[in-house]
Amino acid sequence: MTAPPPGPALAEHPAIPLLDYDRVAGTVENGSAPGSMLLVHGFGGGKQQLRELGDALCPAGSEAFYPVLRAHGTSPKPAWGYSVLDFAADVHRIADVLPERVDAVGYSYGALVSAVSAVTWGAARIRSLVVIDQSFEAHPERHEADEWVEGSLLRWHYDFSHLLDVLHGLGVPVLVLGSPDSGVIGTDEEERLLARRDALFDYRRITGSHAECYRDTEVLVPLMDEFYRTKVAGT
Q1: Up-side HSE of residue 182: CA atoms within 13 Å toward CB?
Q2: CA triplet 158, 161, 166: central angle to 5 degrees?
């Protein structure tokens, strides 16, 4: 019987709470991601949110990793610390269980977490990034002063578009999939994303509400497969 893979090294330090995560062996033989994948769910989601997408794209011989963000599922629920930097730091604390390079996929807020992780790790660890229906521009009008006041403030008040500039400079290919039906990416931002199209960046429209667009694997998988073949192969 094959021994189970080792857990994160920091697991030996009980004072450091670590994210829950699943690691799933890839099975796809053709039309897949280039290698192992890191798939990060959105606010209110969980490790199963992008499982169907990962199952459809993770190649045989590789693994798909599904971390559970803080305050979700059985992951730690600290009283404060809900900036995208805090979320990305959690992912970094389990980075030693990941293969040398992964193709990152993030949905909604998980896309910001993935982008920050990609900027921090660089192309040596993150081979590519796919963003599913997430704005990178500031939207202070969406701020909600509720029990998630800190997360809401840090999610919507700041401009993260520079992350795309940095990823381009690092040589990390990026695909943004945006649904006009959801309203998350506005018309002006979409025009700016379309203007970015080059050898390392692409923007494609998908359909459906924000809560449903990530489920349409019949649409997402071909778009992602094309991205992997045309912009990621050989990087």
Answers
A1: 21
A2: 125
Q: How many CB atoms lie within 10 A of CB 169?
A: 11
Cα–Cα distance measured from residue 73 to residue 21, given in angstroms and rounded to the nearest whole number: 10
Q: In what order do the strands lie in the sheet with 63-67?
A: 21-25, 63-67, 37-40, 102-107, 126-132, 174-178, 201-205
Q: What DSSP assignment string belongs to 101-116?
A: SEEEEEETHHHHHHHH
CA distance 193 to 162: 12
Are 232 and 127 in contact by the 8 Å Cβ rule? The answer is yes
On the question of pLDDT at 3 being above 70, the answer is no
Strand partners, 128: 103
pLDDT band at residue 222 using 50, 70 and 90 as cut-offs: very high
pLDDT at 2: 61
Instruction: Identify the band that residue 147 occupies on the pLDDT scale cut at 50, 70 and 90.
Output: confident
Q: Which residues pair with 189 in a beta bridge?
A: none
Q: Provide DSSP, 130-158.
A: EEES---S--GGG---STTHHHHHHHHSS
HEC states along 58-79?
A: CECCCEEEEECCCCCCCCCCCC
Q: Which residue in this structure is represented by tokens 């692409």?
A: 202
Backbone angles phi, psi at 34, to 5 degrees: -65, -25
The pLDDT mean for the chain works out to: 93
Q: And the tokens for 165?
A: 């500039």
Confidence of residue 164 (pLDDT cuts 50, 70, 90): very high
Residue 1 has pLDDT above 60, yes or no: no
